[in-house]
Amino acid sequence: MEKRKLYDHFLEVQGHSIHYLSNTYENAVDTESTRPLLVFLHGFPENAHAWEGLIDHLPKRFDVVAPDLPGYYKSEPLSSIEDYSVPMLLTRIAAFVELVGRKRQVVLVGHDWGGAIAWPLAAFHSQLFSKLIIMNAAHPSTFTSLLKTSRTQRLKSQYIHQLIADDAHETLVQSDFSLLRNMLGDALFSSDKRYADTLLSGWKNSDTLRAMLNYYKNMPQAIPSTDADDNELAALRVPNIRIVIPTLVLWGKNDDAFDVSILDGLPNYVEELTFHQHNEATHWIHREQAQWAAGHINKFVV
Length: 302
Description:
Helix content is 39%, strand content 18%.
């Protein structure tokens, strides 16, 4: 497998710089190209480099753009905590896609938090996208529904309370980011030192780490306690996020963050759904099973 050359670019969007990787040397995507353009949104606590292994397995006929989400790694932190609310992020990332896409139809790819953004982005800005690809990222509607009905899902989501705590930043730093390391697994830090170094560089930047945590602090739905009472659960409002563009969901079955039944309600919200599950992969399917994922992406995008 030949490693694909990716170039660093920076683009100002709504007054803040966003860093992104692209297969093109120029700072603008070719507007005349008929090649598919894939925009990749990474999750927590990763950065744009998380996609490199998967991109290496994709055909060279694909153009790729992978930003650091606003505030992550080399992307500039935003001005206020409110800027990390989902509606504000959707507006900013839609503007980014318009700038890099240059009127080309884009295939949107998201994992984890990138997927949590990609779902409503595709719903409310569907004119920007031809297709949607999701990897181990819960649909906002099925996630909230499951929080109301599944004690297992509530239990799996309790880690979020550690990330929204007032002392979350200090706790992560003082523990040498043990929670983040445990999420990603020890193997990453020994098997891919170059990528691990980019992660640690971002985490050790206080402004960046606070920005990353702000995504959780601005979650649209509060995470109820594991044994929440009826009143607490009744307060959860299930959003109506409907996807009208063709959608591919790739899922690692052994995901510690989600009850597998979170997938059951997807056909209620996605008009044209293709689904593939990998029985050995975990939440980090985009890295663990990059070749498998790239194969399904190639078939879906064609």
